[in-house]
Amino acid sequence: MEHSKEQSPEQPRCGGETNDPRTSQPHASNSGQHGARAIPPGRAMSVADAPERRRALRSRWRGATLASGWPFPGDWACPAVDRVCEAVISGDDPGNAVDELAAQRADSGIGLDETLRDLGVLHAVLSREDTGSALIGEECDDVPASLLRRAALAWADVVAGRSASREVTDALTGLSTLSYLRMRLHEVYRETSAAETGSPTSPGRDSYALLVVTLRLPGDDDRWARLMALVLAADVLREVFDAGETVSLLRESTPVVLTRADPRLTERCFRAEAAINERVLADPEFARALDDSGSAVRIRRSPLPTEYARACELLDSLR
């Protein structure tokens, strides 16, 4: 997927491909670039054509990736996919977009092998017209090493950056960490995807819920008091949600609970709110810091998004 010098439409593709105009595309490499040209040189592309070509490339890329064995179709789409397509269609160097794509894949828990294979599929899609299973072969191994290296480094940077937070339990509160919650969410989406494909023993996504716990005291200028209130709330959450639920800490004032949506869930939420309020109000300093609502905590229920990547975005928005 590299930038090429201009060729006339009469020149054959590198590699000895057929001269059939339906399948041939000019394609040459420049070792100093990481780009990819999706429009053969010599074919004019109007501004109005660009969005349609981007959508067509994205559709072909996705279909070919799913045909290659991508395990979770809902995980494939992400903002960087569109930026890669835009760079390719416009003839720009897609290196930065590929970096962003690899980083988003890593952040969503997608492995390096799947990430690089997806790039290989894109390279194969750009190298030929048909997108059937025939393209999922050795052409996937033809991606320029420099581009693979960029993607691998971007993916590894994200993984390395999160290595310091790989502890399963927060030392202060005893709640599980964000990294562990991401892992549990990935397991839940794997489990619920089986239900969507017709497995009678797998629960659907609607059978799970994410409870977001918001502490309303004290002010941001008293961090120590906020931490103590968080410890009290964490103790209550572990006591009330003690049947296999995942109780995690997103940030200092936002615990969350990943739980099954059983009929008793509403009652358990009320019980947790009441217990947290009781413990907080027992401390005069905390009681004086209450806002006008007179309540120290609010627990709201958030349904799980349709895709794992969207669930990760939801967690980021709550931090």
UniProtKB/TrEMBL annotation:
It comes from the Bacteria. Residues 21-33 have a biased composition (Polar residues). Residues 1-51 are annotated as: Disordered. This is GGDEF domain-containing protein. It comes from Actinopolyspora mzabensis. The lineage of its organism: Bacteria, Bacillati, Actinomycetota, Actinomycetes, Actinopolysporales.
